[in-house]
Amino acid sequence: MLNSMQRGFTLVELMIGIAIVGLSLVMAAPSFSSWIQSTQIRTAAEAVQNGLQLARGEAVRRNTQISFQLVTTLDSSCALSTAGPDWVISLVVSPSSLANVAGKCDKAPNNPPDPNDPAAVAVDVTDPYIVQKRAGAEGSRNAVIAAGQSAITFNGLGRVVNAAVAGTNIAIAITNPTGGYCKAASGPMRCLSVVVSPGGQILMCDPNPSLPITDPQRCP
Fold first, then answer.
1. Collapsing DSSP states into helix, strand and coil, what is residue 144?
2. What's the rounded Cα separation, in Å, for the pair 56 and 106?
3. Rounded to a whole number, what is the distance in angstroms from the first to the last CA of the chain?
4. To the nearest whole number, what is the mean pLDDT of the chain?
5. Residue 1 has pLDDT above 50, yes or no
6. Gap between the Cα atoms of 52 and 159, Å rounded
7. Which is the most buried residue in 88, 100, 151, 199, by most CB within 10 A?
8. What are the pLDDT digits (tens) for 132-182?
9. Burial of 96 per CB tally in 10 Å (0-12, 13-18, 19+)
10. HSE of 41, CA atoms in CB hemisphere, 13 A
11. Which of 20, 11, 64, 50 is CA-nearest to residue 138?
């Protein structure tokens, strides 16, 4: 005869346990879904921030102008767009190359020819010199970008040289309408912005105006 320490679960106890677990999962599902959607916002914001930092770093390293450009696609039909969702980083070597990558985002990353190389004259100088590019769908397919301008160009000192309004910050807002409204509009999404100052500083921040002025996460 089995003693009390050897008894297993009865069918009723097992079903009650399954019901409790199922109810817990149902209750947690909305929060988990919101977390997944908010994660896409952060993934997109980090990708934009990293792209801008790479563009600025390359501009300083090469002592030349580098442009970060938001584009519609990464194929030959691409066009500049403040909504992205993709981006391309390219060298601005005027007049040897085009600063605008529109229509040529399918080109592989390459380097400008050595001006001391006699064979350089044979290079197709109508193609942009692409440093790197990224598809917006990589881990953040539902994220939506809204930028103050489609292209941000840094010079050899790391400063922005093409701000639409000189001396002002350039903001790139990232939201996720699929997941819901931003917290600023009483929604579940923690929306983010990437802000570039005239001096080239790049900051990822929270655009929620209800945050305290002293909160370091609040956008300037």
1. strand
2. 22
3. 74
4. 85
5. no
6. 12
7. 88
8. 999 988 888 899 999 999 999 999 999 999 999 999 999 999 999 999 999
9. middle
10. 29
11. 50
Three-class DSSP category at 155: coil
123: burial class by Cβ within 10 Å (0-12, 13-18, 19+)? middle
Secondary structure of residue 77 in the 3-state scheme: coil
Where helices occur in 63-187 by DSSP H, the ranges are: none
pLDDT in tens, 115-134: 666 665 555 566 788 999 99
CA-CA distance, 127 to 99, in Å (whole number)? 9
* Sign of the C-alpha dihedral computed for residues 75, 81, 83 and 88 taken in this order: positive
Question: H or E element: which one contains 41?
Answer: helix 11-62
Query: Tokens at residue 127, please?
Result: 């193609």
User: Residue 98 and residue 112: Cα distance in Å, rounded?
Assistant: 11
The Cα–Cα gap between 49 and 200 comes to 12
Instruction: Select the highest-mean-pLDDT range: 6-15, 20-29, 32-41, 180-189.
Output: 180-189
pLDDT digits (tens, 9 = 90+) for 99-111: 688 999 998 887 7
Q: Residue 175 corresponds to which amino acid? A: T
